[in-house]
Automatic annotation (TrEMBL):
<feature type="domain" description="BPP">
    <location>
        <begin position="316"/>
        <end position="639"/>
    </location>
</feature>
<dbReference type="Pfam" id="PF02333">
    <property type="entry name" value="Phytase"/>
</dbReference>
<dbReference type="GO" id="GO:0016158">
    <property type="term" value="F:inositol hexakisphosphate 3-phosphatase activity"/>
</dbReference>
<keyword id="KW-0732">Signal</keyword>
<dbReference type="InterPro" id="IPR011042">
    <property type="entry name" value="6-blade_b-propeller_TolB-like"/>
</dbReference>
<dbReference type="InterPro" id="IPR003431">
    <property type="entry name" value="B-propeller_Phytase"/>
</dbReference>
<feature type="signal peptide">
    <location>
        <begin position="1"/>
        <end position="24"/>
    </location>
</feature>
<protein>
    <submittedName>
        <fullName>3-phytase</fullName>
    </submittedName>
</protein>
<feature type="domain" description="BPP">
    <location>
        <begin position="32"/>
        <end position="315"/>
    </location>
</feature>
């Protein structure tokens, strides 16, 4: 095949990725002017340089420099006089400033390791914190501080290899950095920067352009172009260093000596202007901060760092509402299978010893796992592809009484039943009940006013069937007592036993409810997708409190959990996310499928109950999926619940 036949495909790909839509090469009318300071005639001797975002911790502090000799890292005032220094041979630089001090990341040339340094308000340097040696040569690095004030370090290596490390909680460095995840990045990358407000990581690809990623540890590793080289974008030849400011980005093409300005337009970047840096010798790095008359700049080329002012101040994006981030207190052992395997949890409360309660979690590639309250796996039953699971107490099985767990078995399109021994919590299979489903999916249980246990299961086509379960003969049986249908795919469901009310999730549409006290099958809408609820609608759970009942919904599309009153008019009480726990080394939860909650006093941190969520992306370290536990007290305090 002639290679020229690939040209239309490359152009189509460019359009699909929105690189051609960036507006590159179409400057806005309000042109910005660059003013070099008089000090630029004698540039600062530096290999890397950054302007400090705030001088609250040290009035007059202006710049950080990495010198090309053994003078190392220096803090300078506005006139270029040294205020403090840390000796060594370093390469590359990034920092975060706050009223508590400075957090600085650089590369120790001698040891070929990334190192973190802290400078406090008393102007004391902390002991260097070294990141463990990587398996690749580090070409660049940058810092990120998330909404929970956790500090991360991105390392960029050769041949498209990278890593993300957790390095601090608040302003305090960790005793030992923790690897969060590996990154697949563009080759020929040396520079990166992160916008903490938007959580966006920008990385260069020298001969291609600039790419952006979500910086959050729980985000998927997907990239989008900011701008690429001509003829498909506005960059003439190459992409090097960049700087991010609220609503704007500055980026360098060292081959042509051009400074590109980009402005944020919603979720996209648009080219604003290209400024020729006449007299500069291959400018590679730029640092920027908001000043009184626009942007203050440091531009670093072969001759050192040059100060400048740019009379441009892009429009900052509106602040987005902050969703509370609650740290996971416990995580379970991983499920045995890799990939998208863990799905739905259930909580069995031990009536004799609540601290010995169990969490059951489905592995939809192989079976059912049983965990204790510390997250340790106690049992694994390899019975097939189980999707959802629920439990209820007091099931008559022949002449004895057991607690019951039921799961949807996708291998057999059946209800798979398990007995839970009331004293030990040991789980054992007791049989299956066939269904007419072609693709059984979600499932939940409820106990009616007479004490009978029912299973409600759904098919991917939206059909729901309700079965009254009976084990009096010693073998489980199911009698169908109700059928209804949604117009599109459902999965999660839960029953409020106290009020005999069913809640079901239609993944792309809404949450619905049905009164189970009658034979009716007409559903009432609780909440639409849109607004605080983001598709897919996944797990549903009921918190039955002493004063109030709450419905908890997994809002998978924005990695959050929505809490509503479990009675009409179903008022939204707030949303939260499950974030990482730096102290315990537990990553957060994202892309959650199933969840469960109990109001039972399980002792200790679980005195007001606990929430269990499936974690769709296991980080720190990366591995098979698992489940995270969160004390209900944390949810109640964050949202002001009874």
């Amino acid at each position: 095949m002639d290679v020229t036949s690939f040209k239309p495909l490359w152009l189509s790909l460019c359009v699909a990725l929105a690189a051609c839509q960036s507006g590159a090469g179409q400057p806005a009318a309000n042109q910005a002017a660059l003013h070099l300071s008089t000090a630029s005639a004698a540039p600062l001797d530096a290999e890397s340089a950054q302007l400090i975002a705030t001088d609250k911790f040290w009035p007059g502090a202006s710049q950080l420099l990495v010198r090309p000799d053994s003078r190392g890292l220096e803090l300078l005032d506005a006139q270029g006089a040294p205020l403090s220094a840390f000796k060594g041979r370093f390469e590359g630089l990034d920092h975060r400033a706050s009223e508590e001090g400075l957090l600085i990341a650089t590369l120790d040339r001698k040891r070929q390791q990334a190192v973190l340094l802290g400078l406090d308000r008393q102007h004391q340097w902390n002991q260097p914190l070294y990141v463990p040696k990587t398996d690749f040569a580090i070409e660049g690095l940058c810092l990120y501080r998330d909404a929970g004030r956790n500090g991360y370090l991105f390392l960029i290596g050769e041949d498209g290899i990278g890593e993300q490390w957790l390095v601090s909680a608040g302003q305090k460095l960790l005793a030992a950095p923790q690897r969060v995840r590996g990154l697949s990045l563009p080759p020929e990358s040396s520079y990166c920067q992160v916008d903490d407000q938007t959580g966006e990581l920008v990385v260069n690809e020298e001969n291609v352009g600039f790419w952006r990623y979500a910086a959050d540890a729980e985000a998927p590793l997907l990239r989008q172009p900011v701008d690429i080289v001509q003829p498909f974008g506005g960059i003439a030849e190459a992409a090097a260093g960049m700087a991010l400011v609220p609503g704007g980005m500055l980026a360098l093409d060292p081959e042509t000596g051009a400074l590109h300005l980009y402005r944020r337009d919603g979720d996209a970047w648009r080219s604003h202007q290209v400024i020729a840096l006449d007299g500069f010798d291959e400018p590679e790095q730029v640092s920027a901060r908001l000043g009184e008359q626009g942007l203050d700049l440091l531009l670093t080329d072969e001759g050192g760092a040059h100060t400048a002012r740019l009379d441009w101040q892009p429009k900052a994006p509106p602040a987005t509402p902050v969703i509370p981030m609650l740290p996971a207190m416990v995580q379970t052992d991983p499920v045995p299978h890799l990939g998208d395997a863990a799905d739905d949890p259930a909580i069995w409360v031990n009536p004799a010893d609540p601290s010995s309660s169990r969490v059951l979690g489905t592995d939809k590639k192989g079976g059912l796992a049983v965990y204790d309250l510390s997250g340790k796996q106690l049992q694994y039953l390899p019975v097939g592809r189980l999707n959802n699971v629920d439990v209820r107490s007091g099931f008559a099985l022949g002449s004895k009484r057991v607690d019951l767990a039921v799961a949807s078995n996708r291998d057999h399109n059946s209800l798979h039943l398990f007995a839970i021994e009331p004293h030990s919590g040991e789980v054992s299979g007791i049989g299956e009940i066939d269904t007419p489903f072609n693709e059984i999916y979600g499932l939940c249980l409820f106990k009616d006013r007479r004490g009978a246990i029912h299973a409600i299961a759904n098919d991917k086509d939206g059909t729901f069937l309700q079965y009254r379960l009976d084990g009096s003969s010693g073998s489980p049986r199911g009698e169908q007592v109700r059928e209804f249908k949604l117009s599109s795919q459902p999965e999660g469901c839960v029953v409020d036993d106290r009020n005999q009310r069913l809640f079901v999730g239609e993944e792309d549409a809404a949450v619905w409810t049905l009164d189970l006290r009658s034979d009716a099958a007409a559903l009432e809408k609780v909440i639409d997708v849109g607004g605080p609820l983001h598709a897919d609608v996944e797990g549903l759970a009921i918190y039955s409190g002493a004063a109030s009942d709450y419905l908890v919904v997994s809002s998978q599309g924005n990695d959050s959990y929505l809490v509503l009153d479990a009675h009409a008019p179903y008022a939204v009480r707030g949303a939260f996310r499950v974030g990482l726990n730096a102290e315990r080394g537990i990553d957060g939860a994202s892309e959650t499928d199933g969840l469960e909650v109990t109001s039972a006093n399980l002792g200790g941190a679980w005195s007001r109950g606990m929430l269990v969520v499936q974690d769709g992306r296991k980080r720190m370290p990366e591995g098979a999926q698992n489940y995270k536990y969160v004390p209900w007290t944390a949810v109640a305090e964050a949202l002001g619940l009874d």
